[in-house]
Structures
1.
Amino acid sequence: MAIDSITLAILKGRLEQIADEMDATLFRSAFNPIIAEAHDASHGIYDAKTGDTLVQGKSGLPIFVGVMAFAVKAVIDKAATQGGLNEGDVWIFNDPYDGGTHLSDFRLVKPIFRDGKVFCFLASVGHWHDVGGNVPGNYNPAATECFQEGMLIPPVKLFDHGVYRTDIVDILSANTRLPLSLYGDLNGQINALDLGEKRMTALLDEYGDATIAECLVDLKARAAELMRARIRELPNGIVSAEDFLDNDGIKDEPLKIAMDLTIEDDHMIMDFSRSSPACAGPVNISRSTTIAACYVALKHIFGEVPANAGVLEPVEFRIDPDSLLSVTAPKPVGGYTETILRLIDIVFQAVAKIAPEPAVACAYGTINALSLAGHRQNGQRWVMFSFFGGGHGAHGGGDGLNHGNAPISTATIPPLEILEAAYPVRFAKWALRQDSGGPGEFRGGLGAVYEIALREEHADVFLFGERGKYPPPGVVGGQPGATNRFAYEQADGEHTPPMVSKMVGIHIERDQTLRLETPGGGGYGKAFARDPQKVANDVRLGYVSAVKAETDFGVVLKADGSVNSMETDKRRSGEDGR
Amino acid sequence: MKKPALVIGVDVGGTFTDVFVLDEAAGTTTTSKVPSTHGDQSKGFIEGIASRVERFSNISTVVHGTTVGTNALLERKGARTGIITTQGFRDVLEMRRRDRPTTWGLKGAFTPVVERPDRVEVNERVLSDGSVLVAVDEEEARARALDLASAGCESVCVFFINGYANADNEQRAVEAVRSVWPNPYVTAATEILPEIREFERLSTATLNAYLQPVVSSYFDRLETGLAGNGFEGDILIVQSNGGVMAVDTAKRFPVRTALSGPAAGVIAATEIAGAAGFDNIITCDMGGTSFDVSLVAGGKAALSAQTSIDFGMVVRTPMIEITTIGAGGGSIASVDQSGLLQVGPQSAGSDPGPVCYGLGNTAPTVTDANLVLGRINAARPIGGKLDQLDVGAARAAIDADIGNKLDLSVEDAAEAILRLANAKMAGAIRLVSIERGHDPAKFAAMPFGGGGALHAGALINEVGLGSALIPRYPGITSALGCVVADMRHDKVQTVNQLLDQLDAADLGVKMNADADAMEAVLKSADIAFAGIDHLYELDMLYLGQTHTVAVPLEIATSGLDREAIRDAFESTYTIAYGRLLEGIPMRVMNYRIAVVGRRPGLDMNLFAPADGKPADECRTETRSVYANGQNWAAPVYERLDLEIGTMLKGPALLEQSDTTIFVDPGLTATVDGFGNLIIRAED
């Protein structure tokens, strides 16, 4: 007998609560701020045979929702060659080619047994603070092989029949600059899995294995049905979008990410064949990461589709095996965040061409992984590593959010007071960036300006950013936001990195300053259609300068800041009507 | 002259103002419910008291749970406020912690309560170790203050980076501002919250400044109005932390009233349950759009350090922890495109409200389901706004939107809505109990307000709660809470030192001195206390972690030492996470002090039904109620007429003017010695 839909709805809530509680456990107990504050982690429940995502926590990093299924599958395949899975096993690995993302993300996968058979998997992924490699914090824009990015651990057993393998922990600890942080995060992930198993067992005991098993199958079928229904609402046809990465950090040449999107009734084809081939630097990604990124973009547009593998059933992916979207070892993948942000941007752009109503313009599109590293007077090593914010894209209902987080993440930025207390730095500025939001009938959100001065004798600075040459596009006639800009001070004056927003180990000295200016979001609709009163208000608030109000929005203001209607009309009718 | 003997609790809600009058000399209580007066709540407030009290000079104390602050925040109706801040940091308030309102979908927006031109900068800088890199330019501070004053600001918040480590620059700037702009509404951020984390401190302090003129003038009107009627006693205001403060303190720290109303309800629930022998309860407040739960363990309400009133409106002061989910009486049921039933988060609220209100909504809600299943009396709607509910319209809506799509009868569809709504509420209860390591079997659900009592029984079954306790007057719980709340002041100060480097003795001396100063404030209110407690906590963590654990601490008469701190941390950490992390240094981030003046308890026997009647005599009708897939002939009782010790088997309905109670089949309900109804599973 099929499970009744009311019980199903109730169980869906119960299962999601288990995944959410696993998230919360790790966030509270993790050591490194990337997990504890930025929530760069995720937990879920996965299919016993295929590894498909069945349920995933709501508070973890969105990108992992799509990618974890591949990680669980990697463990299933590896275990099959090693005598199978045992009760009490926990597998650990960070191989990005076999489970997506980059080396910093360590996955723990635990089979849950019922009556001697695997019922499902629980998994935990978290971004560790440092996993070795050439660059502290592991964003190495000059890497040409994954070996320069950090240690690569294939799926191995951390627990074997319930026995903790301290030799594995020794290997991990020996390959990081921050063993204390690693130890704390690893413990947090184990705690999360233990808790998940306890809750899952209680739920299975309460409802019976057969009911839950049926529920998991049914939830997947319904997720697929829901997605088909959403695709059916889109008009049939083919649209294309393309966008570019500045460079791969090795050679200063743009890389194309292109998609041809076909809608055929309740079926969707995402064809990336026209994208650039694999590159030498670390902006390659694996096929599983590409699929996961598309999933994130679709879920942003069609908010209510669940975190379940069924959502991707009606979507066909065409990814050339030679492309930078489908690489294998040892191609470097450390900067995967930049490439998946670009993928999300082109999905947004393509969908806007056929469905302007749910569309959103592109967000700032780069995480700007900035690390400063050095030694204190007492010889102790310090590494400050953080991601920075920017503007969100505008949409048909309003302007973009100022200073938001990246679409692939729900990360918050650490308080600057915490950073100043923990590291020898002083922020000189932490402000919104004028004129950075893309002009449009609805304006893109503003990016930010951060200035950081060094308070120790020396430090090395590393940056992994994008959008230095190709700004975040607008949609439905909207214009792009401002590009990313980075500058650093040295004895002979101010410099910008040769690779625009990527650099390795630039040396700075006491009181020298770094300045990061992040992109705003793209605009929505034609800028000349923006209500002149809103433009005047933007100028009053300092979001837009009076000069840009005139050149970008065609709005001329009087000396008192009010709209000069006659001059504005003249200007707006005379131009190309943007 | 006789000492004034009346203590009065007043809770002003959106619809009604509830007044609870305790006559300490006579040992009697009375209550009153009058319509709230919008625009100026103090009018309804005084009318409510006047409806029960002849001579205001007989009142010793008025205790008030207020939503004036909460509403001003939610409706953005605070005063125009200016911010004077460190050069380079005027956008901290607007940049938040780089978050967004929802994980999925990127259409969020945020408007800060202070516009950008009203956020101005001065040259100054303090470093994280408290050293002053640039002394504040007082001349510049005065000039900026005059700019803000001439722009039309009514209040101002002075906020400097790292002020928690050294507030000297901030204080000097505040004095500079006051020297040219005599204004009672000048707030130094560190006066409100001397804690590390710039956005949280600024947001809390700014919201305080934003509320000050509005809330102060409300309290002024209240004082004037009461005095005009001959009142000469004290006015106390309920804080979000569940304690009360003197009205003068409330005028300085209005942000502490952000959750004043709900906190009063939780305090009352704690007191009522405690008297009835229940130290562990989960309070449930079901409104039109939401379901709020709070956990009380061992007679103490759980507190949280911070909450968001709205996206980006962070208030960081200790407050009763209230977990809210989007499942209320007005929550809308629907079937999604994959055929799965949904309840909420969309809600019809209370206006237009459920379909059965007949005010324009046609989408079926939880209340409609309760009505269709016979659990609500169509001829006796609670709340007093309507005379009659439209059962036919509710049935039609459930049939069209749910029954037809899921191939269920109207009754089965309605029951499905309730099952899912109950499951969501159960999820909220699991979140505050099981997820915090509490065994739900040891807890009782305690609904207050109008809606929760229909669902309390189902929650027993769904989560495995031990019982449910329905207070005698769920509708006036918050007003009662005002009368029994203790007086309480909280303080936090960032320390940010490794335990190994900490001068523990000096820290102990500082904490004691702070507590003594707080006790002096407490005593200045001229209120009688049964006793005064000092509660100490340290926020601690292992080096490298960012989340702290709150470590309760005793300061021995011999002073504080590192070993005592270490032991306290390790025992707290073990409870929270299971295993200690050997060899990793510990850090003391903040200290927290609460000074609590315990007010004399209220004798709950005052509520005991004096002349109750046997169940048969209280029975008003028999109604057909649909539950567990079948019809039942359920007796309906007039709840307040039942005598002590009455035991009723479910299914049964109990009605009173401010709530309806459903005893599910398989449960029994007993009237206890205080007039509470205790619902349990049959043995």
Note: Residues 198-228 of chain B form the longest helix (31 residues).
2.
Amino acid sequence: MSDNLLKDPYNIIITGVGGQGNVMASRLLGNMLVGRGYYVTIGETFGASQRGGSVMSHMRISKKSIWSPQIPEYKADLIIAIEPVEGIRVLARYGNPAVKLLCNSHPVYPSSVIRGETGYPSPEKIESSVRDLAPDTTFMNATEKAVSLGNSILAGIVLLGTACGAGVLPLDREDFHETIVNRLENQQVELNMKAFDMGFRLLKN
Amino acid sequence: MSYLTDNQNNDYLLMGNEAIARGALEGGVNVASGYPGTPSSEIIEALSSVAKERNLYVEWSINEKVALEVAASASFAGLRTMCVMKQNGVNVASDFLLHLASSGTRGGMVLVACDDPGALSSVNEGESRPFARLVEIPLLEPGDFQEAKDITKWAFELSEEIRNIVMIRSVTRMSHASGNVRYERLPDTNAKADFRFDGPLSDPETGPVISMVVGISELQHVPQQEKIKKAAEIFEDCPFNTYEGPEKPELLIITSSACTLYSREAISLLNVKDRVGILKLATTWPLPPRLIKKYLSVTDRILVVEEVLPILEENIKILAAEMAHEIGPKTFYGKNAGNIPSVGELNPDIVVSALSTILDVRVESVSESFVKEAAALIETGIPVRGLTMCPGCPHRASLWSIHNALEMDGRKGFVCGDIGCYVAGLWPGGFNTVKTLHSMGSGSGIAGGFGKLRQFGMDQPVLSICGDSTFFHAAMPALANAIHHKSPFTMIILDNRGAAMTGFQPHPGTPVNAMGEAVPSLDIAEICRAMGATVEIRNPFDIEETQQTLHHLIEHQEGTKVLILSQACALSPERKDNPKYRMKVDEEICIGGNCGCNRLCTRIFGCPGLLWDEEKGVSKINDIMCTGCGVCADICPAGAIKREEVAEYVG
Amino acid sequence: MNISGPNELLENVINRNLCTGCGACVDLCPYFKSYRGKTTMLFPCTLPQGRCFAYCPRLEVDLDYLSGKYFEKPYNSDPLGFYKSIVTSRASEKFTGNSFQAGGTVSAIMYFALERGYIDGAVLTGQEGILPTPRIVMNPEDVLSCGSSKYTAAPTLSAVNRAIEEGLNRIGIVSTPCQALSTAMLRANPLEEKDFTDPVGLVVGIFCTWALDFRAFEPFIASRVDINTITKTDIPPPPAEVMEVYTSDGSKLQIPLEEIRNLVPDACSYCMDMTSEFSDISVGVLEGDPGRNTLIIRTERGKMIVDEAVREGYLIVDDMPEINLEHLKWAAGNKKKKALLKAHKEGMVNNPGKDKISYIRLNNETLEEIIA
């Protein structure tokens, strides 16, 4: 973990598709950081966007103040993508060459793809185009890991673990544990901890 | 115990709506009511979760007008009370609101209206702020999450001081955003309700509560205007109106609500702290004239940043015109000058662009090549993600049958749509069946009107759809009207057992209330029958039977008929993680893209629980998405989609 | 052959009101459906080629090809098409007590063919109220309940499509001329499907001058009589010029054919075929004799089954009076000429290439002879 913020404000976007646990992930991460004494601002869209639409949580972490709940274009420092195409969408609007991208490789097909009106880019295409824009990108099949624990919704937690293990956030495994003990039902704590650890180890030095 | 009722001196990460709820708790609220609507719903949800603990009465009312009436009664009896709704709801409540603003209130009463700039989760981009001016009540707009709490608490005091309802306006980026909030102590909860009415008619504390006596406008309207003047006076010293920036800025931004945060960010990005000041107003109606004058005097150039219409801008211009002889001429930037769009929500980038032009400065950003490459990637490689219904959604099955029945009938029948997830009926995902869409309940009102156009030679079959919550909210009068006037149309009630779109809030048809207590549930079918409609009830997952019923209803066009398509939402607690069937595609049988099918299940039906295997040329089940409703097995022309009952299914 | 797909079918047939509602495209796939006599496309289909187009008797009908296939000759100008013999016929006394239209020849033959296994199922047209409804019949006795004439178009061939789907492979079909034509097109395997086998065992064509649009006929008749009381409708053979509607209270309504003809869809005016030329046998009324039929035997198979039915005592045949034959030829020739002339004038015949779809193709010699 880093002792301080790498930047102030440090800008994180968690993105995915409605129903992937985006809001849950941003909430848990936010609570961990508030617990560490930071100002956290989260902006998110939900409601109609839950219905198979793109969702984004914009997070601003600061020692000094609240920030805008919408991150300016090209100003994200860390993007956590629970869905690869959504990762690209966010990267193109909010990314920059220095951004760190953690990307689930498991696709959720938009209705236009299911209907056959448009194609979905191949894993190779996704990987190459993403790396062109953001060299610091890590792909993983977080959904597969989550399904191995019994529920695909844990993919966001796996990625959260990876983010915390990657040393870019002033957070440790214990922060997560403390937060979920306070926020989740008892029987969910162990499962979420397992998912978190699966991701945590991935980029841990 | 909920974190909403902690009494510790810590920072909490609260959603704006939770902060408003906490503010209400700190303000000693006793009664809260509302009707669900994005982005407002979490306020009542938060309060209902602590209702027992805090001795509150919280209800999800049948609609916003009734909600406001329920909340008002508590005020009349001396309690503190809050009513919550989305912007569109204020339109519904506005009839009573006008009367209430005239009669005045007793216990502190706060109306929270949550607007949705950009219509992220709405069918339109309405504004609730003009109502404050229209009905002459104070309007407060918090500029961050801490203020969302603090201003709510203060609003109750303000209401009691001026003896009238106070309106708080939030927006999506405030209500659905989160940030640090530090708590104050919660008050004791031992309020007693007592409605006093023995005093003279004109006594605001002890007389009957009435809005206006015909022809005697002085009785209420004069005191009402005194109240708003008093509010303006109080606003002169309101601690939530703040200024930050140089003493004599080149440009003054006047802003409120979430736009405050965008403006600050833009100033920081452009590094123009020394040139631009921000007057952040929490009291946007009535504007405190002395305060405005003070800040208009520090500069000649003013940019007003607000969402959505130029309401603040115009009110400030009125004051500036009145004061022109004292403060001199000013140059205004904003919506009328075209610096800020008057459609859609704002963000820091929009304010950056406005400031760049006005101040002739440039922002440092990524390289041109990055921008180009990123844009190219989006344009060429990335599929759009349109809204669709969830996997296993009963509306998909309902709209499928409705579409097919209308097409086969062939007389250009159509559906008048309504507010709910079934707005997807407008799009290919809902088979383009919906042809009108307006406000809550209006689909059935419009359909009732179309039905009467037989007189003018219109023989197109007319259907309306509405959800169960929408039925109670505003469609019941439309149905009664149609039956009374013998309008031939079929109202289809898509009963998915709760206000699903906003998160399964209860309504009069559900057996529990907002506080989780058992309550009588009103039977929609019986209500319709009592009104005189013929009523059929079908399970939309039974495609064959539903379609036959629809054929019958569409073919026999006499009278007003009701078809209830009853099936729980795929996200509902009863169906979530409880699949009825395990689905499988037999690849040997699947016709795929060939003549005889041409990918009906994926290309047309389009349930996200299905996938198209390009390589094999067959359909597949997406096991992660599929909810096991089994409907695709019935639409498959080859019988290739198989369903197997899940032993653990709880029916 | 120029075979296109559903979009061309929609554009050239359904949207131009040329659809006869025969049911050839219905239930082949989930897209084409028939409801109350009207064929509709529910959703767009993107295929460039489809059976819907290939089987449609209103598109790219190559009469020479079909004649060659079934009668081993190019199409000629005979008003009655190719045939071996023409006789009069009626159901034998075996069927006494059943109510038939005219001589009951169709019912007797289908009954016999089903009973003896010449066919493994019969596709007929039953009735729900006054709506004619396709039926797949497996039991000979059930044939008898379908034995009445229907004067509105029915998507009977949709039942053939279902019967094929169910695995029947010697299907007996009672068809109108357009349906017989479509059936011939289906049997020719126009899309050259690899594992195709001819699913048809016998085609009994019926004479037809037109079939009413159900959606026009229903309100027409409903304005004259309570539909629920109708027991039978009949158009007696010429020279009578009326439709007779019998009701349960024993009364009989007579509607002049002049009024009825207003309800004939435009689609029928393009039909060249009065006697179901592409069937094994064709059956119609016999002028001046409501108790007997005209029976045209066209193919070897038709002849064999008729001969058997006569030998086994199911069917009674007699010579065709010359005067009746003359009148029949005149009527059929008249229909053929009018229809082909109309189609020709409207540019629907023998268009070269794929750019413009032809309704019908036939050799120029025959074309000239017919429209001369």
Note: The longest strand of chain A covers residues 54-62.
